[in-house]
From TrEMBL:
<feature type="signal peptide">
    <location>
        <begin position="1"/>
        <end position="20"/>
    </location>
</feature>
<dbReference type="GO" id="GO:0008061">
    <property type="term" value="F:chitin binding"/>
</dbReference>
<dbReference type="InterPro" id="IPR036508">
    <property type="entry name" value="Chitin-bd_dom_sf"/>
</dbReference>
<dbReference type="InterPro" id="IPR002557">
    <property type="entry name" value="Chitin-bd_dom"/>
</dbReference>
<keyword id="KW-0732">Signal</keyword>
<dbReference type="GO" id="GO:0005576">
    <property type="term" value="C:extracellular region"/>
</dbReference>
<protein>
    <recommendedName>
        <fullName>Chitin-binding type-2 domain-containing protein</fullName>
    </recommendedName>
</protein>
<dbReference type="Pfam" id="PF01607">
    <property type="entry name" value="CBM_14"/>
</dbReference>
<feature type="domain" description="Chitin-binding type-2">
    <location>
        <begin position="26"/>
        <end position="88"/>
    </location>
</feature>
Length: 91
């Protein structure tokens, strides 16, 4: 069951990634345009309800988590509020 929940979260994150919008990120993606980093989600430092990915063009792309979920740094996907690791990021 836990595997299924993780798989669903990953699929939701992938669908959200497809709708990513480029943002002015300063140098967030500087040095992260190789295949190891491009497309890999990471926490948006300003909001727990969204995450960033770096494109091969060096731009950061923001994606918004589905309703009632937040980006979970430990899992690398959007998950239920109880499992999210927001830290100091705005909820």
């Amino acid at each position: 069951m836990r595997y299924l929940a993780g798989l669903i979260s990953t699929l939701v994150a992938a669908a959200t990634l497809a709708a990513a919008v480029p943002v002015d990120s300063g140098d967030v993606c500087s040095g992260h345009t190789d295949s190891q980093h491009v497309g890999k989600p990471f926490a948006d430092p300003s909001s727990c309800g969204q995450y960033l990915t770096c494109g091969s063009d060096g731009k950061a792309y923001t994606s918004i988590c589905p309703a009632s979920t937040y980006y979970d740094v430990a899992l690398g996907v959007c998950s239920a509020t109880a499992k999210a690791s927001c830290g100091d990021r705005k909820v």
